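From the shared-data thread, chain only:
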Amino acid sequence: MLFRHFLILLLSLFLLSCSTTKLVVRRDLDKNGEIFEFHESHKHVLWLLIDGVNATVLRSMLERGELPNIHTHIYRRGPYTFYAMSSHVSNTYPNVAAQLTGKFPGHIGIPNNQYLDTEYKDRINLIEYPGILQAKNLLKNELTIFHYLKAQKLYSVSVTDLLATSANVQVIDLFKTGVKEINRQYDRIDKRTFIDLASVIEETSKTDQLPALMYAHLIGPDSTGHLQGITSEEYLASLRLIDTEFGKLVNLIYEKGYYDDFAFVISSDHGQIPFKNRLNFDEFLYEILKEKPRGFCKTSKCRIDDGKIGDVVFVHGADRDAFIYFQVGDLESFYRKGWGERIRLDELLSYTLPSGKNVDIIHEIVKADGVGLIFARESDERFHVFSRNGHALITRSKFLGFKLEYSYEILEGEDPLELEVGRLPAQGRLLSSRDWLALTEQSPYPDVIPQMPELFQTSKTGDLIVYASPAYTFSEEYVSGHGGGTRPEMYTPFLFGGRGLDRRDLGPFRTIDITPTILHFMGLRVNPVDRIDGEASCVFLKYCPYLEYE
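Structure, as tokens:
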């Protein structure tokens, strides 16, 4: 408690020291003779990232009136979508990082919740405490939404998010982490997060110096969904609790006289899907490799040498995915390897087992009932997708040397991604990333074609990426989860409400678009030299100009 109040006091003193008397949103009044309309009345944004929200469940609750505060203050007051596309792999840390930076996980070097990190020469484990504390260093070399606000002398606060270290003030109560790991009192953690947000408003309103952005990460629904299921009363109750606490915060904002100055944002990192069947992937892989592991234990809780079979290491980011790394005999030398030194695709298709026998390791894995897809890299331009009954090729190309385009071609058998034949472009035809998003948005594995090549842009990604079949999990303890790339896991809600905003469906939208969209809304834009992947939605403007970054 004292630690939290100390941080709030520090924020107040920091803001008082600034030369500006009040935070205002910069506007471009005129460019090339055209007038651009910004919602200049909105000086503050409250962004709630709610972990693990199944978009269909949230939408149903809103329509049934079970979330009255979110409905009244956000959903009915601005643009929205329940199809905001998560990033592959659909797990927490790569997607939180992607939202804060506007970049795909493969472009910021955080490909999963667990991976072999060639920079830190360590196995990154963002699932278990104290491993999650590693998150505070992962974005140290990346620009986030907080950096862009700082450049305009606009100030920000982050609550309960270890990745958001670039905010002016970051409120992290380690007791919350302890509660999560020891007692699983997730609702208590979310309540404390709202208490922290209320403390920020109470203290900074005394000097009329509220931050331009208040950002918070709420974890209750994700954790409850894993344990109880996304249709359980406990899961619904976790969302109702957030709605209730949000309502209290809105009342405080109203009492302080700032309600019309605020825009409210809700997003999520990924969805969730229930499953009925389980594949013990670890033991399955042991059986294929015909060698007993060293230090057998549950992979997500192991040291780097645990779960290692000969020169093979595998890790799970969540419930429905796995990264497999080959030729990891000498860890130090492996961490120095780039893609050019890693195992080749043809070697995987004729893999030498410890016994000396050669097998097609990819097809040995993908033929299991619980395995849905396997992705492999052949080169910087060619990426392969395997299912039990099919094999396809994704090609990555740079148009005019800089604009990325992708093609998709079925090489053998059935289409692994199950795209509708009538919606497929000609075999091998190159399309832009956004074209593929629109084309595959409703497909069983949406947005895979442009995203998977970008995940392989970091050598921290496994040699093979494995997705579980839709009805299966690789987890032993959970009943709902994510990580497998299907629609319920990839679809997330994005709601943006405030005074004077038009209520409309956003259409095709990615969660990496959130940061540029919020900045766009505030009259700012990302410097083009920073080359982010997200694109700002133009729903807040009469026109959609390229705004100058000052």
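Residues 202 and 252 are 8 Å apart (CA to CA).
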